[in-house]
Amino acid sequence: xxxxxxxxxxxxxxxxxxxxxxxxxxxxxxxxxxxxxxxxxxxxxxxxxxxxxxxxxxxxxxxxxxxxxxxxxxxxxxxxxxxxxxxxxxxxxxxxxxxxxxxxxxxxxxxxxxxxxxxxxxxxxxxxxxxxxxxxxxxxxxxxxxxxxxxxxxxxxxxxxxxxxxxxxxxxxxxxxxxxxxxxxxxxxxxxxxxxxxxxxxxxxxxxxxxxxxxxxxxxxxxxxxxxxxxxxxxxxxxxxxxxxxxxxxxxxxxxxxxxxxxxxxxxxxxxxxxxxxxxxxx
Length: 283
What we know:
With about 280 residues, this protein is an all-beta fold. It has three domains: about 1-80, no CATH class; about 90-180, Immunoglobulins (Immunoglobulin-like), CATH 2.60.40; about 185-270, Immunoglobulin-like. The protein contains no helices and 21 strands. The strands form five sheets. A five-stranded mixed beta sheet has the order 1-2-5-4-3, with no helix packed on it. Strand 9 (about 120-125) and strand 10 (about 130-135) form a beta hairpin. It is rod-shaped.
């Protein structure tokens, strides 16, 4: 019938003196009822004759087929308990999402995973066939931090929910990428000498990275294009911190870092022009 013996649970007694039981596993469906019988008397009844004849019926009015074994005063009811729904909304917790929120990129190798499931169910998080964490769902929400570190690269995580009766859901799935590699330091390629008091700085960095440029006591941000080029017009740009104060007749150091989509920050790329005090506007 069912490879796992049923567990006793409160349920209605159809005959007034029978026993009601809750099956661990789904036993049939409305359009294709079936049972896998183990032996000639899978219910262990003393009389395996008429009283062992199974009848399909929706006993608990929940839309699925349950099983009635026996008749009259010797009746056993097996209620099919639907499994809980698959865990949903799997994602990185805010404090583990080092990149843009919701992009499923992080430099955290033990990121906290959150999701939703039926309250009271036990959620198990898997990487492949290996369980890497367990939690109990409270108020429809669960949180799991993997027991070990995730390696660099893409990972497909799955989660199942199991209720008190032992019914296990189908799996909810989420793919995330671990990226702990910092980008290379940006290059500053604009001319080291200029007669402009507020020149345009330019260079290269990892494509798509956010470039932070510090010069003259002010820090600016810009984005490297798909080709990796970046530029910053000091005439029109607004600093995110500090105030620009350049030496119009001497060197002005420029420092630039790149931050990738996972939040990894490069070493600084730096340049400093030689002193040019004899020519106004050089820096």
